[in-house]
Amino acid sequence: MAGARVETLMARMRMLSHRARTGLRKSAVDYFRGDASDWLAFGGLLLTVPAIAFGTLMLPVWFSPSALVLPIVAGGLLLRPASLLALYAASAAALIVEALVLGPYTEGPARVTPGTVLVVAACGFFGLVIAQFRSRVGVPWRRGGTMLFDLRERIRVQSKLPALPRGWHREMALRPAGGQSFSGDFVVAARTNGGRTLEIVLTDVSGKGMEAGSRALLLSGAFGGLLGALPPHGFLPAANGYLLRQDWEEGFATSIHLVLDLESGDYELLSAGHLPALQLSAGTGRWQEKSGEGPLLGVYDGAEFTAARGNLRRGDVLMLFTDGLVETADREISEGIDRLTGEADRYVAAGWEGAAWHLIEKVAKDVNDDRALLLIRRSA
């Protein structure tokens, strides 16, 4: 009995010891990944404070008391608010020591003046505001730029058009508003039906630039998953339901869905409140508007979308675009479309290579709106 009790006691002690080690290890990992993940930067910046103070006292020609703003500014970009406050305390102590050793600022130059204190305090205030914002967002400054770059590249990859068989040419150009990196216009595309069918969806999210970029990223991923997984006539109703479930205050979007048979050239266009597509007939040299019927996405449930049908013969061109390309405050959409087709006629003889980008440059270079243009051409 005594031996069994001893074994039970030893087992409990081992279990408690294991739990204690596991808890300590988890706490250490959480600490160094969380509140102390900036310990290396904090230690380095903390060491620069006495170094700057020493340089100010010993080499006043090379070091100014206001040089303490350097670790303060760097701390605002790199440190968490708690670590930043500790750095501020060290900087304030260094400033006090400098003032005591150098003497009153009225007795000579290179001393701690009220202006020096004001500059250091102002830099500290703005650094703390930046650090609190980063802490609230949860993205470190040194990784935030990388994350935004990855998001931008993800949108670009999702908008990449698939390769087409011989005899077909496609190209796309997208220009965000104001030269920003994020756009409310996006494209998702896929070859379905064993590669015979090309499906392209061009969407214009409400808003522009950074305002619409986050919604465009979410929708491009969702639309990319829906495209090809549903029958062509089921895509826009499913996309409409998805937008309604998001319950955004400004959650509507326009979209045009092209379903093209790459063998016969027959196509269907389904539209959700989007501008019509334009088809250039190689036989007549004229542009013709092609558009289905349907309401905006995200407005009401149970929306129905009617397709427009056509055929791309050899030499024909089909153009899809967003309103930023043809509509401005002082220009009607019809006038913008006339200007777009007039510029596009220049490429009939010269060839369409690079035409999408150049058309945006010619028609809507300085427009403060997102612009997207897609060209599909069947070789003659």
Residue share in helix: 40-55%
Mean pLDDT reading: 83
* Strand segment count: 10
Taking pLDDT < 50 over at least 5 consecutive residues as the criterion, the unreliable ranges are 27-35
Q: Give me the side-by-side strand order of the main sheet.
A: 1-10-9-6-7
Name the helix and strand elements from N-terminus to C-terminus, one letter apiece: HHHHHHEEEHHEEEEEEHHHE
* CATH-derived architecture of the largest domain: 4-Layer Sandwich
Q: Determine Rg (CA atoms, Å).
A: 31 Å
**Amount of beta strand:** 15-25%
Shape: elongated
Give me the CATH fold name of the largest domain.
Answer: Phosphatase 2c, domain 1
InterPro entries: Bact_Sigma-Reg, PPM-type-like_dom_sf, PPM-type_phosphatase-like_dom
GO molecular function: phosphatase activity
Domain PPM-type phosphatase: 169-378
Protein name: Membrane protein
What descriptive keywords fit this protein?
380 residues, Phosphatase 2c, domain 1, 2 domains, 10 strands, 5-stranded antiparallel β-sheet, alpha+beta
Write the layout of secondary structure elements.
Elements: H1 2-33, H2 39-58, H3 69-78, H4 81-102, H5 114-137, H6 141-158, E1 168-175, E2 185-192, E3 197-205, H7 209-226, H8 232-246, E4 253-261, E5 266-272, E6 277-280, E7 287-290, E8 307-311, E9 317-321, H9 333-344, H10 347-350, H11 355-364, E10 371-378
Antiparallel strand pairs: 1-10, 2-3, 3-4, 4-5, 5-8, 6-7, 6-9, 9-10
Helix pairs in contact: 2-3, 2-4, 3-4, 3-5, 4-5, 6-7, 7-8, 9-11
Pfam families: SpoIIE
Keywords: Hydrolase, Membrane, Transmembrane, Transmembrane helix
GO molecular function: phosphatase activity
